[in-house]
Design goal:
Shape: globular
Number of domains: 1
Strand order of the largest sheet: 1-2-3
Bound molecules: zinc ion
CATH architecture: Alpha-Beta Complex
Structural class: alpha+beta
Number of strands: 3
Number of helices: 5
Radius of gyration: 15 Å
CATH class: Alpha Beta
């Protein structure tokens, strides 16, 4: 797999110095997702604080793409509301489905545009998507909890 050097560096940087790695003890939702084709695993802990801002921590083992993607995602989503996170999630999913045609909107995706080249390699797309699918799952569950609370 050949990626643009700059993007390769961004990915390796996040792999070596991951953001928000290490599971927080204070959480509402825990999800564990596995990417069997590569052996990547991720656990995500998520809660909403009083202002409904996301508090997201993760831990995992796997290839550099999967771990770097989790780090980038946590950096982008922490401190945002679920509504603010949605367009970021949508943009990343679209990027991964683009087969390399989409360079990604840096204003929305920031460091996550570094994964644009990965979308040309079907075997690695699941690596890049692992954390994001785990987040999607966790966000749905945490919304369910807060929805239930409002209805009381
Ligand atoms: Zn992988």
């Amino acid at each position: 797999m050949h990626l643009d050097n700059l993007y390769q560096e961004v990915i390796l940087d996040h792999y070596k110095r991951p953001e928000y790695k290490g599971l927080g003890h204070d959480f509402q939702i825990a999800v564990h997702h596995v990417n069997p084709s590569c052996g990547d695993e991720i656990t995500l802990h998520l809660r909403l604080d009083n202002n409904s801002l996301l508090q997201l921590t993760w831990d995992g083992v796997g290839c550099s793409i999967s771990m770097a993607s989790a780090s980038v995602m946590a950096g982008l989503l922490n401190g945002k509301t679920i509504d603010q996170g949605q367009p970021i999630l949508d943009a990343f999913l679209a990027l991964m489905q683009s087969k390399g045609a989409d360079a990604g909107d840096e204003e929305i995706l920031d460091d996550a545009v570094a994964f644009s080249g990965v979308s040309k390699f079907p075997a690695r797309i699941k690596c890049a998507l692992l954390a994001w699918m785990a987040y999607k799952d966790a966000a749905l569950q945490v919304q369910g909890i807060s929805g239930a609370r409002e209805n009381v």
